[in-house]
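Supplementary notes (optional reading)

For those who missed the lab, this is the record we used. Protein: Cupin domain-containing protein. Length: 117 residues.
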Amino acid sequence: MNHLTVKNFGKPDEHVDLSGHGHRDMVMLDGMPIELAEFERGWRWSTDVKPMAGTDTCQVHHLGYCLEGHLRVHMDDGTDQDIHAGDAFEIPAGHDAEVVGGGKVVLLDFGKAFDNR
């Protein structure tokens, strides 16, 4: 489409609560999801999202930017990578992730983050 569109995360197209450890809000722009995720201290994908996803690890490819905090990603192949505020990231399918430290993590995800509900 070729028109101006503006959406606000204060009124997302979709909101998902993550077991009290955070939430994900999504807006759609030209058929593409953009997600703003906030993960609180203690959040871990395998604890807070796995029951909803129904898979052993996250099977979604993520492309995004970390606005705040420290996230550790654990890949199925055994490698780990830390993501910090200011980092752009690409995370392939087949991973777990957890908040590190005492603060929350805030991410923007420009991809298919809602495909693993």
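If you only remember one thing from this example: The helical segments are 45-48, 50-53.
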